[in-house]
Each structure stands twice: as C-alpha cells, then as structure tokens.
Amino acid sequence: MKPGELIGCHDCGCLYQWQPLAVRERARCTRCRLELYRWHASGPTAQTDAMVALTLAAVLVFILAQAFPIVNLRLAGMTSGVTLLQAIGVLWGEGMGVIATMVLLCAVVFPGIELSALLYVAIGLRHRRRVPGFNLVLRTVQGARHWAMTEVLMIGILITVIKMTSLARVEPHPGLFAFAFLTILCAIVMRYEPRALWALADRQVPQPDDVRRHQAAARHDHHDHHDHHHGQPAELVACDTCGLVNRLDDDAPASGAHTNAHCCRCGAALHRRIPNSIAWTWAMLAAATLLYIPANILPVMYTESVGGTEGDTIMSGVLLFWNTGSPGLAIIIFIASVVVPVSKLVALAWLNGSAQLRSRAAPLARTRTYRVVEFIGRWSMLDIFVVTLTVALVRFDLLAVITAGPGAIAFGCVVILTMVASAQFDPRLIWDPIDSHGEHRHV
C-alpha cells in the first residue's frame, strides 16, 4: 500500500490512512485497539521467498502426516494402529457419518485447502504476478483458515496417547512426529494473512486502472469528510474480505446491511454490516443451547469388554482422568468440553443482546470479549478428536472395543453451531450506537 491509502478496522469500522511504520512498530486502531498491520523486517522478495519455503514444507509434512500411522497399540499379542484417514473411515463405518465428516473437514480438507492455496498464491507472488483466480484463491484461504484445526488435533492426539498408556503399550509412528512438525509450521504460516497478501500483491503488481481510480475517489471522499467540505460525500465501506475501502455508488440502498455492490479488488459482496447478523446469531445460539443438553447427558463413547458395555459421558471421562492420576488432562478436557462451550454461549448471548439493544456500555470490553470468543471456539473440538482416535485405536475384539455414542454427535454440532454464531456476529454493531457512521482518522 502507499501512504494515504485507506484501510478499515474490521472490528469497529473506523477508517484510517495507511502510513509507513518504524522498525518493529505496529499500527493499531485507536478506538478498539485491533492490530491493523505491522512492520516487516524483510522486503517483498524476501517475504515471498520465505512464504514459498515454509508453505511448501508444510504441504509436504501434511501429506506425510496423512499417509503414516500415528501410533500403534499392543495388547495381549494384538496390534492396532491407524492413520487419521483410517480413523475417520472407522467412524463412518459405524454410522457416525456426522462426526466423521466434521473431523475430515476440520483436520484434513480445510488445512489441505489452506496450505495448497497459499502455496499457489505464494509461487505467483514470488514471480511478481497474480496467479489465475488470485482473488478467489485468497478468499478460499481466508475461509478455510477459520475451520482448519491442526493445532487442536495435535493436542487431541497427545491426550489420546496418554490415555492409551493405561490400556496398552503405545508405540509412536512417523505420523505422530509429522503432525507435531505440521503444527509448528502451520503456526508460522498463519502469519501470512490474506489481507496482507492482497496488499503485497498491490505493491508488486499494479492494480488495473479502474481499481486505482476507485481508490483515488475513495481517498478524495475521505478527505472531503475529514475536512468538513460542503456537500455529502459518497459512503465508504471497507471490504470484509480483503480490507479495501470501497466507494459505494449513488444508487446503493440508503439503509440496511445490503448494498448490492461488490469490492472492486477481490469481488466479494459489500455490506455495511453482516446481513441479518443478530437474527442469525440468535438462531445458532438457540440451536446450540438445545443440543448442549443431550451432549452432556448422552454417552460420547461406549466401551465393550469382557465385563460388559459401559457408556462414558463428557463428565465421566473427566472424572476418569482425575481419578487415574492425570489431573492435568482432566482439567484440559473439562475446560475444552465444558467451560469453553458454556462461556461461549453466555458471552455471545451477552454480545448479541447488548448489540440488539444498542447498548453504549463498555464497547471496548465487549469487543475484546468477542476476540476471545473467536479464539477459543475451535478448542471445543478437542473432545471430538479424542473420541475419533480412541474409537479407531481400541479394536481388540473381545478384550476391548470402543465405539462412539450419540453424545459425540450432539457435542460436535454444538461446537460447529457456536463457531457459526461467532462468525455471524458483527462486532461493528457494538460501536454503531456510539458512532453510526464510523470514524475517519490517520494512523
């Protein structure tokens, strides 16, 4: 980006003029304290070289992690070991298609899409060009990243391994180390935000003339508003996808969330606020709350052994770890499976209700709460990953067989619904009663 070009704050809607940063400096929104962008030590060429190398390594390790077994269990002369894809197949074969699909998407499909799409874009940027479908691919990266849960899966693998040590002899396999390395690489690759890549592409490859004219018009309208010139300037709206500030046409609807317009850079639909944000958030929260009851009452797993069949709920699993000398794991599962879902339901209900009532109280605290909800939401999938791996590994005929229960389906749906609810909630609604038109400032 060039000095003076406009950027929008995702969480409160403020508009700023982009300015160069000093060494290790970060630009934050002065109203909601969201980080807008940061200083980079390397130039564009070095950035793209590093991105290609790291992303290529992540793709290769991802393939290895899917191809090799994670661990082997040995019990009474019998051996059981599976890859992640085989574990998903076991669930599917038991009629647990809902859980199998969730795990497949969050642990395989979305991480694979994110890494491969990012590598495709990075190779193009390294050669200073936009690859075919550049905007669509980056939008895909942005969407897949929200649902990719490699780090949660890794913790689930570790919990399962520790849990299995009390039942059988555990032998680590290459898949375990591949997933550990993949988790580290994914954490590094996460630094390459799609919005920053759009800005990097703009620096390396000039935008078409119509896009540059549109940006110039937006800057002109911003100055008119900032300098209090006479006349009503056109409305400026930041794209939720790529962050570009767009100038709405005069024929755009005067009110409401919809604008019937598209971003001139990435082509995503523009809207002043997420359409029907409050209504959709309430709907998702209501469904998640209803499903949370059977998720805790019904068994998430059944254990079949010579002593009979026993069902384990989420809380009985927590108590089992606690009573068998693993209080740390018990606390982790309790936080991920009980504290996080309940806290998320309560927090989203508070945020959505206060936004609907147009409350002006503590907007910064509510915005920070929203960010915490967004961050912790995925960790509730931890229990689902543990169930998946446990069911696939414990296959010792008459000695011990573990199958998934209906509670796992209900709990998995709760996790997905709460994540959709937080994605549908528009944090800019928190700030609308304070300044319904946003603020226009210099960074």
Which characteristics define this entry?
alpha+beta, Butyryl-CoA Dehydrogenase, subunit A, domain 3, 56% helix, 16 strands, 3 domains, 443 residues, four-stranded antiparallel beta sheet, three-stranded mixed beta sheet, disordered C terminus
What spatial order of strands do you see in the largest sheet? Answer: 13-12-15-14
Number of domains: 3
CATH architecture of the largest domain, by name, is Up-down Bundle
Average pLDDT metric: 84
Low-confidence stretches: 227-232, 436-443
How much of the sequence lies in strands comes to 5-15%
**N-to-C span:** 14 Å
Strand element count: 16
Global shape: globular
Q: Classify the fold: give the CATH topology of the largest domain.
A: Butyryl-CoA Dehydrogenase, subunit A, domain 3
Taking Cα atoms only, what radius of gyration do you get, to the nearest Å? 24 Å
The DSSP helix count reads 15
Kindly provide the name of the CATH class of the largest domain. Mainly Alpha
Helix content percent band: 55-70%
| Class from helix and strand fractions | alpha+beta
Question: Which sheet architecture does the biggest sheet show?
Answer: 4 strands, antiparallel
